[in-house]
Amino acid sequence: MFKKLHVSKLFLISLLMCYLYMILVIYAIITLHPTMFDTDSPEKVLATVELAYARMMIIVGAIFGYPIVLFSSLKYTKHVTIALTAWAIAMYIDDYLVLYEIIEYPKGVLVSAVLLLRPLLIICLIWMSFELTYSKSKVE
Amino acid sequence: MADNKVTDIEMSAILAAFAESREIKANSIHQSKIFMALIIFCNIYVSTSLVIYYLFGSTIHASLNADFIAVFDGRANVMFWLVVSMNISAYFNVGFKALCLISLVYTLNSTIDNVVLFTGLLDFGDHSYFSIFVISRPIMFVVLAWMALSFRDSLEGY
């Protein structure tokens, strides 16, 4: 089934890692508990939880939507992958440069793992975007 | 006359000789009037919103927690640099479509974040000049997407 896609093994490994990471993020958000937050500001906790759930909705959309696009057209997959990469980088920059005063990350091993592995997701997405952009003969 | 076939080496030399003139032609691709109108609108929209934010932002700051103000400042800075990058990339014809897509995704992401973060905390009805930009945000999405689609980055179609 994957041979028909004409993509490299590295692309498929990156895709698999992205999926594993997204499932880990969803699990971490679903298992969030108020006692995991170590802050006196309920506003910050509320903002963090609301943001997490809003982003989870987009992640769920990506999880189910990406295979449909991937098996339909590699050309559109390229655009969707670049858009998702831009979104992941925008969130990463936003969290560390813009929202750092508002977001209060909960304590826990799972949350730490999610934060630690975040650059890995971005690297995988960048690799996928580059491969789809520069292997033009296959995409077009 | 029978042996006048051009070899690969000669063909490469001919192409190399004309490479410079092709580059000059590629730099002078004329964009459509729609694209010009869209990029002018985008520049005016972002500049006006930034000017209004820096002139009247203090009224919003007064009604917000200090931590939340950093969000507005950060977003204003990022949007300014995105528009500057888009203008430069459009002028030099390098990665404009990718930048448009990045700006579109960033604008969508920041809109979702703002809706999630500031609903209930801030009443934009009290700051009508800001609500104009909040309400007109979907127009910006359309403009960014349309700019990416209408931009001519190659000589195809000439």
What does this 3D model show about the protein?
The complex is a heterodimer of chains A (140) and B (158). Chain A is mainly α. Chain A has one domain (2-139). Chain A is built from 5 helices and no strands. In chain A, helix 1 runs antiparallel to helix 2 (42-72), helix 1 (9-30) packs antiparallel against helix 4 (109-134) and helix 3 (74-98) packs across helix 4. Chain A is elongated. The mean pLDDT of chain A is 86. The two termini of chain B are 35 Å apart. Chain B has 158 residues and is an all-alpha fold. Chain B has one domain (31-150). The model of chain B has no long low-confidence stretch (mean pLDDT 78). Chain B is elongated. In chain B, helix 2 (33-62) runs antiparallel to helix 3. Chain B has 6 helices and no strands. The interface between A and B is medium-sized, with 23 and 23 residues.
Topology:
The complex is a heterodimer of chains A (140) and B (158).
Chain A: H1 9-30, H2 42-72, H3 74-98, H4 109-134, H5 136-139
Chain B: H1 8-27, H2 33-62, H3 66-92, H4 96-118, H5 128-135, H6 137-150
Helical proportion of chain A? over 70%
Count of the separate structural domains of chain B: 1
**Coarse shape of chain B:** elongated
* Order of helical and strand elements of chain B: HHHHHH
Separation of termini of chain A? 20 Å
Low-confidence stretches of chain A: none
Structural class of chain B: mainly alpha
